[in-house]
Amino acid sequence: MRILFNLIIAILICLSSCQSTDESLSIEKQEHISNTLKTLAIDFLSSWEPPFNPDKALMLFTQSEDFHLVIDGLITTTFKEWKDGVPNYMADDDYFFKSYKHEIKDIRTVVLSPNSGVVTIIYIWDSISRKDGIHKRVDGAFTLACRKEKVGWKIVHYHGSHGDERIVE
Fold first, then answer.
1. pTM given for the model
2. Rounded distance, CA 102 to CA 113, Å?
3. Residues 111, 136: contact at Cβ < 8 Å?
4. What is the CATH T-level fold of the domain 2-17+25-168, as seen in this structure?
């Protein structure tokens, strides 16, 4: 998992040094877009914590045909499939976990153009099971490819993965 994190960071650093932003895109505009991307990613992560908010999570995604999502190798290729699953996924998490939160370790952005960018969050998922009270921590990371649409910035592609669970004594 750490190799994946380091690879993501290396790719982001490389992309940021050779990004294809318009020369006329000011530093202030790039910072504004970067902050918007960070907010979008943090909003998604927080929607996936109690009180779970499926509507908030879903409104962050594009509903266009180029929607694509991969979580731990499971692929979702349509927004409808994602929309149908999110309420059930969140209900399961609410049922199985007494405590459920994310600790952000790092967040990086790359502004690709005035209307597109990439953001990666590396985090630790901290949870306590309702069934047996076991406290677990899991490394996680996700990368979002985002674009500005008529209704605002949306997540077009999501790729996320988790490492092995560590039991906390």
1. 0.85
2. 29
3. no
4. Nuclear Transport Factor 2; Chain: A, (3.10.450)
